[in-house]
Design brief:
CATH topology of the largest domain: Fructose-1,6-Bisphosphatase, Chain A, domain 1
Distance between the termini: 42 Å
Helix content: 25-40%
CATH class of the largest domain: Alpha Beta
Order of helices and strands: HEEHEEHEEEEEEHEHEHHEEH
Radius of gyration: 17 Å
CATH architecture of the largest domain: 2-Layer Sandwich
Number of domains: 2
Bound molecules: L-MYO-inositol-1-phosphate
Amino acid sequence: MFDPRPLVDIATAIGREAGALVQRMRASAVVSFDTKSTSTDVVTAADRASEQLVRTRLSELRPGEPVLGEEEGGTVVEGLTWVVDPIDGTVNYLYGIPWYSVSIAAQLDGESVAGAVFEPATGRMWTAARGYGSFLDGSPLRVSATTELSLSLLGYGFAYRPERRQRQADTWAGMSTRVRDMRRAGAASLDLCSVAAGRLDAYAEHGLGRWDWAAGGLVASEAGAVVRLPGSSPELGQDATFAAAPGIADEMYDALVESGFGKV
Ligand code: LIP
């Protein structure tokens, strides 16, 4: 039987190396930076250097295996593909908010089998291997036991494009009276890990890249979360990512649909 755990070890080791580089570079990397899809969608020299380090190390440790990365692109193939977000939460990184990660996943035929989400600012390491559970610094993770929607804490996000943000804001306004409270933390990989740890009861967002959810989605599902990845739930929207504790997953899903989440 295929054992993905050695792939977690590789993702963990490389994630730490890239995270150390990201931290070393921060003072200079945030002085001048480029933008991508909009003027608020930033990319720094640290994003690029981190992805280059990950690619170089993967070519040494796993020669010939393809890589899909946020900054240099790539494609997911049949067989094994490495999926990399060199800095997830780049705006947080730019502002010095210590909530960003280096996210590295291994996908088999497009499905995550191993993942590591490393927090350079704190040194925390989130890991998961399909069928073997998920962990924070080696301690097992389990989602919250929440069963009441009105007592749940919902994580969410916004796209970069202004015209979509207004529609998203309308949805989040509709949800605000149906849950305990809401958090917009700015790093999808860590939002998904937060669901795994019970720090959020649910999380939903549109428009994420595969690199944003590839590792964190596995951490969440291996901790017992109900996870719906882009393309799996048309009612939530073709590019929706959703994760929730099982006790509220159906109710949260329905509430999001009723609030118009599927139409943003
Ligand atoms: C970010 C995501 C976040 C989303 C941001 C952005 P990046 O990824 O982690 O959840 O709301 O718009 O996509 O760009 O920092 O890698």
